[in-house]
Amino acid sequence: MTLEDLLAREAIRDTLARYTTSGDRLKIDAFVSCFTEDGIIEAEKVRRGQAFRFEGRAAIRAWQERWLAGEGATHGATFVRHHLSTSKIDLTGPDSANARTYWVAWTDIGPDHAGYYLDILRKVGEDWLIAHRRVRLDWEAEASLFKAAIVRSRGS
């Protein structure tokens, strides 16, 4: 492994952490900046009705603005904290990488929901950005405060 590989991996970890902390804090500019201009975020392997797909920074921004506005009583949580754990990063080229990262979200009820991210990342300038994020849900609490949140925040 080269020094450049180590620096790339650390930059990718920073992007993943920035996504999580800015998303939990609804810092929309910081959240959107984690994606390439044509970035995609989508849910896979979720219950019927919970799927979503947003393409491009404008669509991702609009989605986050609906969360911030609390449209449709998005969820009942007073806080949410996503905790990242194991993250396997594979550099696939000088400007490309794949990552698989496990996560669990905590809310007022304790552990609320959990799963993993499958990411395709691309180096843009000096930054490593998410080009495609697939969110996979493995588990959610029976009383999850987020069960209907995605449906309420999807928009039309």
Automatic annotation (TrEMBL):
CDD domains attached to this UniProt entry: NTF2_like
Domain SnoaL-like: 5-134
Segments forming a coiled coil: none
Alphabetized Pfam families for the sequence: SnoaL_4
Lineage: superkingdom: Bacteria
Bilayer-spanning residue ranges: none
Name of protein: SnoaL-like domain-containing protein
Lineage per the UniProt record: Bacteria, Pseudomonadati, Pseudomonadota, Alphaproteobacteria, Sphingomonadales
